[in-house]
Amino acid sequence: MPRRLIDQDRQRERRRQMLLLDRISRQSERILAREIASTTRAIVDKWEVMGQAELPPEHNRRINVRLRQMWAASIKALGGRILEQAKGTTGATELKAAPEDLFERLVQEYIITYGGEQIAEDISRTTVTQIMAQIEAGRQAGIGVAEIGKNIRKNAAAIGRARSAVIARTETHSAGNYGALKSADEVGLPMVKEWISDNTPGRTREDHLDADGQTVPKDEPFIVGGESLMFPGDPAGSASQIINCRCSTGYLVAD
């Protein structure tokens, strides 16, 4: 009968994983919030003078740097948990590479597989789109340029906080679960994986509640809401299935 690689209590294991990722997420939220807010103000400043809403040249690069730091920390956090718990497990093989080398490789693979630069561009594009929508709303309301700019700057910090929270939670969750799956590959044990839902009333998607307890071979996808997801937060899934997801993966070793 399969035995759990990590914690025998499913929900306790999910909470432990989320605690690791939440620490990373909170650190990143603050930095992303400041970046989005300051960029919003810079765009509005230029629009007031030039009539054009354009991103500052360094914005994409700064977002890329922060995303990569988030992904690296998340992959190491959950991947390291898998490797640590696999130590001494009967049948576990020696790792092909040192953990730090493994995690660096996984970060590169994650970026290539899921289009890291495109994610940064999407975040930047959304910033400009939201600003243009606020400008147009102000125009439709008959508000002048100075008042529109003042209103957007006034709300920039709050908008930055809200957007950074969603970005950080989603990206740390996706990368962390990817790191756990790929680290499980390195252990060399026959495993199945289990979907562990966050069963908080009113917060968990129905599709994810339905998926709770679903087990599949490690290298096959879960079927969640009709979609194939290799892990909770799989970026290959639709936004409706992955944004702000707080489900986790359990790994069971076949004796």
Molecular structure report:
α3 (99-114) crosses α4 (116-140) and α3 (99-114) packs across α5 (145-187). The strands form two sheets. A four-stranded antiparallel sheet has the order 1-6-2-3. It is α+β, with helices and mostly antiparallel strands. It is built from seven helices and six strands, in the order βαααααβαβββαβ. β4 and β5 form a beta hairpin. It has one domain (9-188). Helix content is 64%, strand content 9%.
Rg over CA atoms: 21 Å
Low-confidence stretches: none
Distance between the termini: 6 Å
Q: Helical region count?
A: 7
Report the biggest beta sheet as strand number plus sense, adding barrel if it closes: 4 strands, antiparallel
Oligomeric form: single chain
Tally of structural domains: 1
Beta-strand share of residues: 5-15%
Helix content: 55-70%
Q: Which whole number gives the mean pLDDT?
A: 90
* Secondary-structure-derived class: alpha+beta
Secondary-structure element series: EHHHHHEHEEEHE
Spatially, the strands of the biggest sheet line up as 1-6-2-3
Compute the number of strand runs.
6
The outline comes out as elongated
